[in-house]
Structures are given as structure tokens and as C-alpha cells.
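Hello,

Our lab assistant flagged a job as stuck in the queue for most of the afternoon. It eventually completed. Since we weren't sure the result was trustworthy after the delay, we are filing this so someone can double-check. Below is the sequence as submitted and the structure that was eventually returned. Let us know if re-running is recommended.
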Amino acid sequence: MSTGRTDEFRQDAVRIALTSGLTRKQVADDLGVGMSTLNKWIAAHRDTDVVSKKDLSLAQKNDRLRRENRILKEEREILKKGHGVLREAKAVRFRFIEKHRSAFSVGRMCHVMNVSPRGPRAFRTRPASRRQRSDMVTLAHTREQSRLRLGSYGRPRMTEELKEIGLDIGHRRVGRLMRLNGISAIRTRKHKATTDYNHKFNIASNLLDRDFNADAPNQKWAGDITYIWTHEGWLYLAVILDLHSRRVIGWAVSNRMKRDLAIRALSMAIAFRKPPKGCIHHTDRGSQYCSYDYQKILRQNAFKVSMSGKGNFYDNAAVQTFFKTIKAELIWRRSWETRRQAEMAIFEYINGFYNPRRRHSALGWKNPVAFERKVA
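-- returned structure --
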């Protein structure tokens, strides 16, 4: 390379280094020269007119704006991740800073969280307070109970569960710990119609009239049918609930929504409970429940037959609530390969969790089995 071209190359390198906004290392790597060489060129040409004062001033201004933009962008990312702890106690904000120190500048996080830069250092070295130790113990129990309860409990039920195992704790503290540690109930939904109103069977009046309370077991039963999607096709679930305790006393599944499905659920409930004469049996107006065979079984066992108004889901709200619960806590959480796989999971959910363990607000936060035992 000739001397003139070499000098022109040096001037271009200096101009890029001083005005581009790139670091000197980036410029050196892009141009294929060493850092020491580039620094020598910059020192040699600093007092020349390679870069005009106007261009240098503009470059410095752009440099300042880039730094400010980087700061604002970092602060925005900190706020996106930490907006939930801005109003929490300093210890909570310190924990946030410790958790994200590898991603963000500690000084910047201290500024955004409105704490002293010395605070996080002191927080790391000082021993945990009694309150912090108590929170750690409570959090460990909360995580364990959430796992045991299939991740289905929000703050109220979780508080009752922790009290049951001996912790003296309020719902505000439980809510704070759950919120800060990402523990929450999981919900999602699908829909498919399951009621066939297009039939000529007789319809019964609504004896229940949306009164879902009962003083004792076997006074009021309610039934309905819902659906579960599997890779083999739809699986239908029929249940009978005792409205006194919301306990599932009969259930059956089938790949077809025919009357034998509802009859099998009813037969299980009758065999299990042997209901007295006059027990109210409430369902919707679906053909499965209005059929001759189903109504014959009700007459043989002296039930009082009650049916919801046409298309009125609120008339059978107790069973609809159960369906929402089992779908949110079990069905919607995974993909079901086979109907048999879904059936076994439903069996374990009803007999291993819902009836003997799941707490209900309508039962004073007791589970159905314990509530019936208390009445007995």
C-alpha cells in the first residue's frame, strides 16, 4: 500500500473510531488492526483536522444519547421484571436485586428499586431475621402443599391447608409469599355441548329451584354429563353429587353419550348410599335423564325428580362447578393419549383427592369426607 493510501486509511480509521459510536476494539477488529496501533493513530491525529470540531461534537452528543438510551432500556427491563416488588419491603427488593445481579447492573437496580447501593451488600452478609426465617419455612410448606394439591389452590384454600398442619398464619402473608414466588392456581378452558333437548320424553318441574344446600346427606342429589378430549376421541363423564357435602357419590365414563352412561353413574350412587324415600334427584332435561329406563330406576327408588329449565346452566350450578374444578385441576393440564389413561386419572382425582382431601369454601374449607363425618 502506498504511503498516501496508508495515511488515508489511518485517517479513516481515526474518523470511524471517534465518530461511529463503536468501541475502539470493535473498530480495530473490523479494520484488522491491533488495539495499540489504533490508539497510536488516534493520538497522532487528535490535533489534526481529520475530524472537524463540529463532527466531533456531534459524535459526542450521539454517544451521550446512546448511553442514555441504554440506561433507559435497562431500567425499563428491570421494571418489567420487578414491578411487582416495587412496593414490597426492602428485604423483598434486595432479594430481587440478588436474583438478577447477573442480568442487570446492581447500581441501576438499586436506583430503580429506590434502595441504597450498600443495602444489597449488607443484605448478603447479615443473618436472616426471625421474620425471614419464618417466611422461608412457610414458603417450603406452601410449595409442598401446592404440589400435593395438584397446583389447584389459591390463597384462601392454601391458608386453610397451612393452618391445618399447624402454622399460625394469615391469608395476607400467604398471598404475599405465593405472589412473590410464582405459586398460583392454573386455569384454562374448552367447550362442547353435551345436552340433547331434542326428545319427546316427559319433563319434570324444578323442585330444587337453585337451593343447593342440604341439612344432611341423601336429601338432594344432582347429576350431569361433561366431556374430555383424548387423541382417541371424546370421553364422556357422568357424575352424581350429594349436595350436602358436594361429594361425588357416583360416576361413569364412556366413549358415547348414551343413557347407559348416566344409568351406570346413578347405579353406583344408589349402591353406595342406599338413599331414603323422598331424596330429590336433580339433572338437566337431557335425553339420557328423561329416558324411560333412567326414570324407571328413579321411581323404583322413590326419588323426587327435579329438572333444570331448558338451557339454564345456573339451575345445576353445583355440578357445573365440579366440572369446572376437575377440568381446571386435572383435564386441561395435559394431553390425553387414550381414553383409558384419562379414565384412570379421573378415578385417582375423585377418590384420591377431590372427595377425601380437596377443601371447599361452601363447606367451611373442609373436604367432603370430613364434612360428612362431622355431621355424622
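-- support follow-up --
The delay was a queue issue, not a problem with the job. The result is valid. The longest strand covers residues 220-230. Residues 53-82 form the longest helix (30 residues).
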